[in-house]
Design a protein that fits this description.
Elements lengths: L2 E4 L4 E4 L2 E3 L9 H13 L4 E3 L8 H12 L2 H4 L3 E6 L14 H15 L4 E6 L8 H13 L3 E7 L3 H14 L6 E3 L13 H8 L2 E2 L31 H11 L2 H17 L3 H10 L8 E2 L4 H8 L8 H11 L10 H5 L17
Parallel strand pairs: 3-4, 3-10, 4-5, 5-6, 6-7, 7-8, 8-9
Antiparallel strand pairs: 1-2
Helix pairs in contact: 1-11, 2-4, 5-6, 6-7, 9-10, 9-12
Keywords: Oxidoreductase
InterPro entries: AKR_Detox_Biosynth, NAD(P)_OxRdtase_dom_sf, NADP_OxRdtase_dom
GO cellular component, one term: cytosol
């Protein structure tokens, strides 16, 4: 396992983060404990969860693991959790209001059995709560010693910029990370969101780097998903996600190249997909969501896998998103370009 700095914190984190969304639901406690033990043994230290994962069971399971392991093991973990989505029937049990964040954080700490969380992330934007209110609530949590650093998740580019600029202007805790969906078949964040994160020095913690398992190599075009796969296990949401991905020919073409690169390295398709994301600009650590210890063992290799420049270029090319002509396509791009060499300037022919 390699280490990278969590931007703006001085904290070293593993270049693969362990996601725990399925702990307590898809993955039982014994298997989850084995996954956590192996991840730490492999020198992984960044563990991500959220208050809504399994309606709190993921955090509870993590709390029992922390309580059952010696301090020399658990003290190495850099723990991240999130809040924003609804946890109950009350309309105020959702969003990023001071009321909800304060209660959600206290509840998370109780489930985790911790006094402090290293990284507390807004799980999404809340259009009903002024960002100043949200940021002051987070800052107060930092001052109270309940949170060390704050982060964002699922924000758009302008929302990232507004959150960072407001925090800086008011002297509050500035977000240090952004957790977006990012994979070889989901690259649209490169238009605005990645540049906003890079400009503001936020580290990216991509979720679903295997696109809900599509890039694992377990699926074949035109064939029904096996019952041992995420898409074939009977979960309606996973079936819907797979159906959308499978409907796009470019995704299958991308998977073909992933398989070819994997064969050249004698590794799995998933390891190649993880390695590609791990080495994208601004990425601190993609989140690996292993359901079994075997899956974790396979995924851990990705942290040390190095793709050649040629292999990376092939993957970049086959997976490149195709935007409309404006604002992110050729016509829109030309509106924002300028060159020192006048011969490169687009003049009359642009219009």
């Amino acid at each position: 396992m390699q280490y990278r700095l969590l931007p703006g914190t001085g904290i070293a984190v593993s270049n693969l983060a362990l996601g725990t969304m399925g702990f307590g639901t898809e993955t039982d406690e014994a298997e989850a404990f084995a996954i956590l033990d192996r991840f730490v043994e492999a020198e992984g230290n960044l563990v991500d969860t959220a208050n809504v994962y399994g309606a709190g069971t993921s955090e509870e399971l993590l709390g029992r693991w922390f309580a059952s392991r010696p301090a020399e093991v658990t003290d190495r973990v850099v723990l991240a959790t999130k809040a924003r989505f609804g946890t109950g029937p009350d309309t105020n049990e959702a969003g990023t209001s001071r009321r909800n964040l304060t209660r959600a954080l206290d509840a998370s700490l109780r489930r985790l059995g911790r006094d402090t969380v290293d990284l507390y992330q807004l799980h999404g934007w809340d259009a009903l709560t002024p960002i100043e209110v949200t940021l002051r609530a987070l800052y107060d949590a930092v001052r109270a010693g309940k949170v060390l650093h704050v982060g964002l998740s699922n924000f758009t580019g302008w929302q990232v910029q507004l959150a960072v600029s407001t925090a800086r202007a008011l002297g509050l805790a500035v977000p240090v990370t952004l957790q977006p969906q990012y994979s070889l078949v989901s690259r649209e964040i490169e238009y605005e969101i990645v540049p906003a994160a890079l400009h503001n020095g936020l580290g990216l913690l991509p979720w679903s780097p295997l696109a809900s398992g599509f890039l694992s190599g377990k699926y074949r075009k035109g064939e029904q998903a096996g019952t041992d796969t995420r898409a074939g296990a009977g979960n309606p949401m996973n079936e819907h996600i797979f159906s959308d991905l499978a409907a796009k020919d470019q995704n299958w073409a991308t998977l073909d190249v992933v398989r070819e690169v994997a064969a050249a390295h004698d590794v799995t398709s998933g390891q190649v997909a993880y390695s590609w994301v791990t080495n994208r600009p601004g990425v601190t650590a993609p989140i690996i969501g292993a359901r079994t210890l075997h899956q974790l063992e396979q995924n851990l290799v990705a942290g040390d896998l190095t793709l050649s420049a040629e292999e990376t270029a092939r993957l970049d090319e086959v997976s490149a998103p195709t935007p409309n002509d404006y604002p992110y396509g050729p016509f829109g791009t030309k509106q924002r370009e300028r060159y020192l060499d006048s011969s490169d300037q687009a003049i009359g022919e642009l219009f």
